[in-house]
Write a structure and sequence with these properties.
Strand content: 15-25%
Helix content: 25-40%
Order of helices and strands: EEEHHEHEHEHHHHEHEHH
Number of strands: 8
Number of domains: 1
CATH topology: Rossmann fold
Structural class: alpha/beta
CATH class: Alpha Beta
Strand order of the largest sheet: 1-2-4-3-5-6-7-8
Number of helices: 11
Shape: globular
Largest sheet: 8 strands, mixed
Radius of gyration: 17 Å
Length: about 270
């Protein structure tokens, strides 16, 4: 299906796309820092998920095919990020989707809850999701983030390649890595800096959830250590913790069969 665009509250265009069964239960995928909606290819192309569910994924502001304004005011406020999510939900006509939030998207779902409430959320799969950032929860892959904000292209490329490698314990194929690197590199260095400059503790919002919740995390995650998942699961009422042995920051890619099966169990 062709890419659609919706306009957020500040005029930014947010790109989104849908796959699967138009009449099925709804899943809304939200990617992590520096990625895009194509990150979810092993879910949106899965025949079993596509036969049962309507799947929607969008590009965060500053990422993918969404607008990339360079002003600090375009990234600082929780409301803008929450409004982006609300705009996609409205434009796609979603009723009560299950949110799948990867990495930085743990911050974005908090923005949405803070500004629009949790009434439209049918469930949440926290995937290596950033709900709180304390030094004890950070892995060595975090060291790539600062040089990724460099305007010096050679340094920027080298750091982005290292960051992307750190997202996986089981590495993608060369072809898949090249595709990922391409959509990572279209995020401007200034946007990266502005996104990373936002405050980090969002558990106050996610603690308010009462919907079904699953916390998915790889034991070999180099960005966020498993202690973060344990923290999230302890704070979200009724959440189930699913640890993936020998898997890195991208369990939905590295072990897609298990991930898709557990997601289907959550969605129902």
């Amino acid at each position: 299906m062709a890419t659609s665009k919706t306009t957020s509250s500040d005029g930014a265009a947010i790109a989104w796309e849908e796959w699967g069964n138009p009449s099925g239960r709804e899943i809304l995928f939200i990617h992590g820092f520096n990625q895009c909606r194509f990150s979810w290819a092993r879910q949106t192309a899965d025949p079993q998920l596509a036969s049962r569910y309507r799947m929607v994924a969008f590009d965060l502001r500053g990422h993918g095919e969404s607008d990339k304004p360079l002003g600090p005011e375009c990234y600082a406020a929780d409301k803008l990020w929450g409004d982006d999510v609300a705009a996609v939900i409205a434009s796609a006509g979603l009723k009560r989707p299950v949110f799948v939030v990867w990495s930085y998207a743990g911050r974005v779902i908090a923005d949405y809850i803070r500004t629009h409430g949790a009434g439209a959320i049918g469930g949440v799969n926290f995937v290596a999701a950033r709900t709180r950032v304390a030094p004890s929860m950070l892995g060595l892959g975090q060291r790539n983030l600062r040089p990724m904000t460099s305007e010096e292209l050679s340094q920027n490329i080298a750091a982005t390649r290292s960051f992307l490698r750190a997202c996986f314990e089981l590495q993608p194929s060369q072809q898949d890595f090249e595709i990922m690197l391409a959509f990572n590199m279209i995020v401007p260095a200034r946007v990266r800096a502005l996104v990373l400059g936002r405050d980090t503790d969002t558990i106050d919002a996610t603690q308010s959830l009462t919907c079904p919740a699953l916390v998915t995390h790889g034991t070999k995650d180099q960005l966020f250590l498993p202690g973060l998942a344990e923290f999230t699961a302890s704070c979200v009422k009724g959440a189930r913790l699913s640890l993936y042995e020998g898997i890195g920051h991208a369990p939905f890619w590295e072990d897609a069969p298990r991930f898709n099966r557990e997601l289907a169990e959550l969605v129902g």
